[in-house]
Specification:
4 domains; five-stranded antiparallel beta sheet; elongated
Length: 261
Amino acid sequence: MYVLSSQELNLRDKLEQQVRTGFVLRGQALRTIKRLKLYRDLYDDFESYCDEVFGFTMLYIERCMLAAETYYQIESYLKTNGLEDPLPTKQRQLRPIFQADLTPIEAGEVWVMAVKLAWGKVPPASVVKEAVKAYLNQKYPPINPFVEGQVCRITGGIKGKTNCWCVVSEVLEAECVVDTWDNQYTLSVDHLSSLRLAPAEESQMLDLGARMTALAEVGELDEAAMWLLQGLSRLNRCQLNSLEEKLLQILEQFYIFHDVE
């Protein structure tokens, strides 16, 4: 073990007091202790020191240090640009910014955007996350990877349709117009994922979708029919098993061909 000088011991005592205060001083103090290795007289590594003295995990420590660094970047940006926007008050408000690995200027710009979204008040983490996403989409517009006729999975953006498969009918700059068995939607590319089907498999899915849509267009369907169609809309394969095919045929006969008594 190393022996710390009296000056180093005094500095560590002061920094340990800072760790127990607000999140900015906490992150700054932890970074200084780590950089100067002010733990080396009692502990072999920084992680053991933080665990024993403060009960902090390394994940929390890293977040504290990154939050403090991001806070000072925002503070500097606001002063440099003569802005009086409120500063962050909690570590979690900064988490979306430092997790996005933004430059100091980008961090400041995103914070200003988040404050505007919060009507001039300190924004919660959810608003900061929204600002980060909007900022990155503006500065680095997403490339639309989809093509017309592609079969995709809906991953979000529409209540009740998550995990349903759909077909891309129109490709826009950062969105796609997609057809499901019962409706049409416009979705961000972030809310779609390709099923990566072979052409023959996509053709089978399109045929299935056409049969399901024909049923939807008949009119009001009973609960059992809706239950089956909603289940088929979340299939992870292009072929129906024998039971699924039989049940679908029964619906077609009942609603379309009227062959079931």
